[in-house]
Amino acid sequence: MSIRSSVPHLIFALMITVVPVLNVAAQDTPPAEDIDAKIQQLSEQGHFPGVAIAVMQAGEPVYVGTHGMANLADSVPVASNTVFEIASLTKQMTALAITTLVEQGHFTLDDRIAEWIPDPPEAWAQVTVNQLLSHMGGFVHGFEQKVDDQYLLEYSRENMLASAKNAPMIAQPGEDWNYSDLGYFLLGMIIESTTQKTYAEYMQSMFFRPLGMEQTHLLDQRRIVPHLARGYAWNDGKLERNRRVWQFALTSHFGVMSSLDDMMRWEAALVDSEVINHAALQSTWEIQRTFSTGDSCDRWGYGRGWHVAIVDGKRVLNHGGYAGTAYIRFIDTGLAVIVLTNREDNPNELSPISLAWAIANAFDAEIPVDGYRCWE
Q: 327: burial class by Cβ within 10 Å (0-12, 13-18, 19+)?
């Protein structure tokens, strides 16, 4: 293990850790210095205060780099144990929890969700578990109650469910694809009803503790979290605090907090672990809604908690998180890229998923530097 430092710019003070390659030929791995330089350039271009990146092959780390600052005010650098909000990367975990319960025989993907939701609206009567997983339930995306277009500081389950019930349907169940936090919130309610545990308790007992993910937990604004990254936004040409201080009682749609160390444990488990039900995992990769596909991909669409592309017969999964995260898995080649940042997404700035694609390209030149544009 070697550690190097470079300080080309104040907020991009760079601390890099390179993990030795295991079972990968040295000539197949790009020089760490080249990867460092690429990440530094992209970090500056995207105004990312801090970045933690892991590249893994067949569940083993090939490259681990930590860059910039977790806390600008106190000049605390990012480390592999820095805890980030992974935001919607939570969805692939929730989806795996649901498909695991399916494999255990608790319910089927085609069961109606009204069985678990007290007093469901009539419009929800035909919505299935699978439609929630694949964003085909006809629900809106955001649903939590606001006052003067501002989030509340505290949301109970009852408040969130009431807001969900009051949200308008934007399509008939099964007819169209609409990305929906509301749907994944309801999946959390199904997990809680089925297991008689809170979502947080179930995820800890089923996955996080058995996998040794000791830094991984669900959003709790009252909790003192060691090594917690501060969140930032790039607005009007400057970085500022992003003020994500709301507390939600159930966050199966976005609420997991984790470190790069723990996310590497998660990726390793998805490759090979007795903790993970393999049939349940494979179920999350199956495309449920196919999008219009151009010439560059065989097929693409949304599975269960993952965007899925099939390129030259090989499966590629990816997802992003609004708080500044991205995750790409190349199922058939074993490559995976995890990107955790503390700059929330911005449509006018370089996205974390773009950073992830660029790093994937550095390890496999056949992967487009800007990702697969399957609609072309």
A: buried
